[in-house]
Specification:
This protein is an alpha+beta fold. Helices cover 37% and strands 11% of the residues. β3, α5 and β4 (108-111) form a beta-alpha-beta unit. α3 (62-71) packs across α5.
């Protein structure tokens, strides 16, 4: 999947795109809760909703995007493989998505910085 960043229409997303992504992610991504807080609502004089993606696989929303993107790769793109440079959530999301997508048959290379904080080196139990 490649995006032509000079084409203003190339990155437009419509509701049908969101529905298609949700269908692709069924059984792969967790359904995370939407919560509210009486305290926050009172302090902001409004009703605030929190989409709790910290409960998602790998602890962030990035798994949804990574999995959805990998599932849409063409056969040629799969042959080229996927490379990502990250020391955090994105690298974890790509790695887990690659392991989750059946019949992906794609080389995934995770480039991680030489200097990385110890908490990011922890084993991810997702």
């Amino acid at each position: 999947m490649t995006a032509n960043l000079t084409d203003k229409n190339a990155l437009q997303v419509c509701f049908a795109d969101v529905e298609a992504a949700a269908k692709r992610l069924q059984g792969k991504a967790f359904k995370t809760p939407v919560l509210t807080s009486h305290t926050v609502n009172k302090q902001t004089h409004s009703q605030v909703f929190f989409k709790c993606e910290n409960f998602q696989r790998t602890g962030s929303f990035k798994f949804r995007g990574a999995c959805n993107a990998l599932m849409q790769l063409s056969e040629t793109e799969k042959l080229n493989g996927v490379v990502t440079f990250s020391s955090g959530n994105h690298a974890q999301a790509i790695a887990l998505a690659a392991a989750t997508v059946p019949k992906l048959f794609c080389t995934i290379a995770l480039a991680i910085p030489a200097k990385i904080s110890p908490p990011k080196l922890r084993e991810n139990n997702t």
